[in-house]
Structure formats: structure tokens, C-alpha cells
Amino acid sequence: MRTFIYIFSILTFFSNGRLLAQTIISGRVMDTSGNPIAGANVFLEGSYDGGSTDDLGQFTFSSELEGEQTLAFSFLTYETLKLKRLISQMIDLNLILKEDLNTLETVVLSAGSFAAGDNSKINVLKPLDVVTTASALGDFVGALQSLPGTTTVAEDGRLFIRGGAAEETLIFIDGIRVFTPYSPTTNNIPTRGRYSPFLFDGITFSTGGYSAEYGQALSGVLLLNTINEPDQKKSDIGIMSVGGTFGHTMKWKSSSLSLNASYTNLSPYLALFPDRNEWIKPFETGAAELVFRKQFDSGLLKLYSAFDTSSFHLIQDDINDDNGLEFKLKNSN
Fold first, then answer.
1. CATH assignment of 23-103, given 3.20.20.190, 2.60.40.1120, 3.40.630.30, 2.30.300.10?
2. pTM of the full predicted structure?
3. Which of 4, 33, 226, 242 is the residue whose CA sits 20 to 30 A from 112?
4. CA-CA distance, 269 to 276, in Å (whole number)?
5. Mean pLDDT of 111-122
6. How many alpha carbons fall within 13 Å on the CB side of residue 100?
7. How many CA atoms lie within 13 A of 278 on its CB side?
């Protein structure tokens, strides 16, 4: 019986000692105007001890920690405050939180896309981006088909946005609408864009809204912006498995002349990867562009000329004809 009383006394002693080790932390949190801040987080760093302020900005909680500790105060749109002192001195604290000016920046909501003639939006692609996109094969339309918001429809090759028709995406060069931006082709044979990517300084692509300047477009707008004035004399050479490109620019004091040429022949590709068509003459195309620029005090004059030719001859399978459907094209523009 004596042994039981002795053990009970020891347990009671340690229990009372444990209760005595609890330290009450209390105080009040206000803003710079003296208004109480409700819902602020108050906690001891490196522990699970803490709480939140009530409607009057007051807080109270207990902790078993001892010695010097760091008490942190945080609340949305206010700077986090940290107080480092002995935990026994964290009683009836009065703290003031300052507004975090970095989080109070003005938020601007725009109910539309770029304004008429606006050229400050994102240049989605540069010429180098076009020729380094593996699936594009040097075609600016093919490069755009890898962007979000576009879709590939069978083997058409034209630019489709969110399932709309290709005619619903208008293409402009320096603000002038292009009515025939694609090279001619036949059924189930992808078409290509008619222009060299090195002709353009940037390609601005919008799959959303646009201003009244382009109001007749239903799905999107593709703006091709030619180079205003080259910065230096240069030459560009591109080599692909199915062709190549060449560009050369001459620059003088107030004028410049640029020549771009390209050639594509699908014979090597079709030899390695035959398709379901019987090719008598594989697709072959060549194009050349010449741009002259003259700088005046009152503006810039641009003269643009282009020529392209394409040809192919094939026989396609046809459900109504055992001999297939023969198609031959030779086109020059």
C-alpha cells in the first residue's frame, strides 16, 4: 500500500510540473490606423504552437517552449512581422502590421484584344522559330499549327483555329489582306504558305478577339510584318531534307534590297515514306521574293514583288474508278 502511494505521488509531481511549464502568449494585432485585424495568423516559428486573432484583433495561446523564440504575424496584403524575444516576455503584446504595397498593384481587366493597328502584342514566331520547328519544313503556316488554339484538319495544310474553316482566319501582310496565301494543291495533299519566313520581322497571331479593323475574321487573325529596315548586309542559307532556302540583303545609306528564294521537292521524302498515291511527278515548288525599301524624311516606301511556281502529277485512289483519279497541276504566279 505504501508503494502505491509513493508512485502516485511521483506521477502527480511530474504532472504538476508539466502544467507549470506551459507559457501563455497573448496580445493584440492592429493596422497602422489603429484598427484591429481579425483572422491574422500568429505562431511560433519551428513549432505547431499558434492561433489567430479574433474580431478585436486579440490572440492568446499556450506553448511549452522555453528561452528565446521567434513569434510571427502574417495576414493577406500585409507585411509579415517577426518578433524575437524571450517567450516569457510575450505577454500583452501590441503589434502593428504594415500594408504590403507590392501586393496592392492595380489590376487592369481588358474586355478585348489588340486595338486597330496595334503591333505591340506578342510576336509569336520569329523567322528562326519557323525554320527550326521540325514539323513545319520551313513553312510559316506549318509552324503555327504547333501552337495552342490551332488544329490540324486531315491533310489540308491550311491554318484552322478551334475547328473553324480556313477561310475564317484572315492573313495580313503589313495591314493588307492576302486573299491567296496558300500554294495550289489537290485533295488529300497538304498545301503550303506562299511566303518565305525570312521576309518577315515577326508573326503576330491572335486566336481570340480582335478590333473592328479585322472584324470580318471569325476565328483569328494572322499578321505578317515585313522588315522595315534591315540593320546590316547579310545572307541566309537554309538546307532541308526536301529543299532549301536562300536570302540576301544589300543595305545602303537610306535604302535596301532583299532577295529570298526557296525550293522544295518531295521526291526524297516520298522515296523513303511512300504514301497511298501513285506519284508520276512528285510535288515540286520554287518561289522568289524581292523587296526594295527607301527611307524618306516623312516615311518609308516598300516595293514588294514575288513569283512562285509549283507542279506535280499523281494518280489517286478513287472508289468510283478502278484506274484511279489522275491529277496534274502546273501553276505559276
1. 2.60.40.1120
2. 0.48
3. 226
4. 14
5. 44
6. 10
7. 9
